[in-house]
Amino acid sequence: MSILTIGTVAFDTIETPFDQATMILGGSATYSAIAARYLADDVRLSAVIGGDFPDKYIALLEDRGIDVTGLEVIEDGKTFFWSGRYHYDLNNRDTLATHLNVLAGFNPELPPSYRDSDVVCLGNLDPLVQLRVLEQVEDPDLVICDTMNYWIEKAPESLKIVLQQVDVLIVNDEEARQLADDPNLVRAVSKIRAMGPATIVVKKGEHGAMLFHEQSIFWAPALPLDNIVDPTGAGDVFMGGFAGHLARAGRFEVDDFKRAVVTGSVMASFVVEEFGLENILALTPEQIDGRFEVFKALSAVPVAVSEPA
Amino acid sequence: MSILTIGTVAFDTIETPFDQATMILGGSATYSAIAARYLADDVRLSAVIGGDFPDKYIALLEDRGIDVTGLEVIEDGKTFFWSGRYHYDLNNRDTLATHLNVLAGFNPELPPSYRDSDVVCLGNLDPLVQLRVLEQVEDPDLVICDTMNYWIEKAPESLKIVLQQVDVLIVNDEEARQLADDPNLVRAVSKIRAMGPATIVVKKGEHGAMLFHEQSIFWAPALPLDNIVDPTGAGDVFMGGFAGHLARAGRFEVDDFKRAVVTGSVMASFVVEEFGLENILALTPEQIDGRFEVFKALSAVPVAVSEPA
């Protein structure tokens, strides 16, 4: 199955308590597409960049077999720029700067070759842009959507129209509570499902991720890492791994969703081990499969052997 | 195997955003012993109460088959009193009052019949009191210890002496980071293990619990509940269930510890569904076993069926 991933392609300047990086390649679509491409063969990227965007970065995406036909270049514009500083525990960050630049006028016109995409990944963007994409894809098999507190607060009405067309919403626990206006996560998820998405994935950072699908709840751990370097992009890589697994499986049964959540977690566990994209540029299938098995073992409850003694 | 649980027996006044209860039976030893008794036959309680403590509450413990020989009564003293108010999301609480009363002078003198206890549960108390208990138990098979930020800040030296004699430390993630002075949980756990306890259980509230034992890391989910009424005692019930499982298994292999963490989580999931102790006074083995299976299913990663398709 083919995957269309729409989002940002950006320059990031990142500070952590331990290190920093200036004007590196970032953006939700970049992270998501690179992760998805490890799992699925046909990954199509839609985003907008400025004339300042280096050819070598486009080549980086092309060399990985990512379809960039839908990467729009505004020659006299500047690429989206984001800068953030992580706190001591790396769980929280402050945004230092957001220069929308060309993103401000982003009105994606999908190339004809994108319109038959099977799995659509709507990165965290203005819901009106997400809607614009959905209008152009013909009968997708699965629509996966990310959003954030900014859109929940600023554009609740258009977000709700998007949600009516979404199959899987991926949010963090805080966003889920905010969107549903309910402090209890289980109740919040029920309320969000009533808005449209049959399946909800709640990301909990270092606490793992939860899947709510039909009557099932599934809990995937996060890999406890002793050396988290940079959490940037973890959520986008999660979505890429999640979508990539489902496109590869070509099937959306509950067990496929469960394994997709673990696959997303696996991919996210790699990206945080180095700055920016660095650690997901040269993974092998053996590394990905090996870490999948580590995740499985992490939460496997052993069967009772001989108790009560 | 026999279990000795030492901690508080108290009156609690609890406010949640939805309800309140005044002067109900509480205390860490109460919660812990009641939970442990569902799993293990020989549960011994050590605590101190005042002359104001009603006989019916002592009868409640005795009727459940809990050994209260070591429940010291100070006739002219008042029982420990705690009062707290939970925030809207029930994840945080403010302590409104702590009246130590008879707990201030607590210097436990274990009955001779307690001194051969196999599993010792040191509830969250002054480390000097925990040490006093350890001096009196003859060669226990397993020492499990709870503590909190108050003792980490106020009594770090005596706490470190206790930790040298502890096999399993149960703390929450914030306490682990504070005790080790390291924001990374995996590194924090390594540092704490160097202080004495070979096994660490990190409680993460609604995010589950993690076990660090030998080279293994195990992650137990929390049950997503849509109606959490009162989190009071959840940590104590967790310790009781954890210790109860190990005493019943009579063995301390890694798989026993994993199942003990799940059992602790199971027992904690019951107690939060009603105010105070209410929901753990009449559980059946079928309810406990049934919920254990629910926990297992919650985090079981399905095997791949036919992918890649």
Description:
Two copies of one chain form a homodimer. By secondary structure, chain A is α/β, with parallel strands linked by helices. In chain A, 35% of the residues lie in helices and 25% in strands. Chain A has helices at residues 28-37, 55-63, 127-136, 149-154, 156-163, 173-180, 185-193, 234-249, 254-271, 285-298; strands at 3-6, 10-15, 20-26, 43-50, 66-74, 81-86, 93-99, 119-122, 142-146, 168-172, 199-203, 209-213, 216-220. In chain A, the strands form two sheets. In chain A, strands 5-4-1-8-9-10-11-12-13 form a nine-stranded mixed sheet, sandwiched between helices. In chain A, α1 packs parallel to α8 (234-249). The first copy, chain A, is globular. In chain A, 50% of the residues are buried. At the A-B interface, α7, β13, α9 and α10 of A face α7, β13, α9 and α10 of B.
Query: Which two chains share the most extensive interface?
Result: A-B, 46 and 46 residues
Strand ordering within the main sheet of chain A? 5-4-1-8-9-10-11-12-13
Q: How many extended strands of chain A? A: 13
Radius of gyration of chain A: 19 Å
- List the secondary-structure elements of chain A in sequence, H or E: EEEHEHEEEEHEHHEHHEEEHHH
Helix content of chain A: 25-40%
- Uncertain segments of chain A: none
Strand proportion of chain A, as a percent range, falls in: 15-25%
Question: What is the mean predicted local confidence, pLDDT of chain A?
Answer: 95
Sheet with most strands of chain A: 9 strands, mixed
- Identify the quaternary structure here: homodimer
The total count of helices of chain A amounts to 10
Shape of chain A: globular
Q: What is the rounded distance between the termini of chain A? A: 52 Å
| Coarse structural class of chain A | alpha/beta
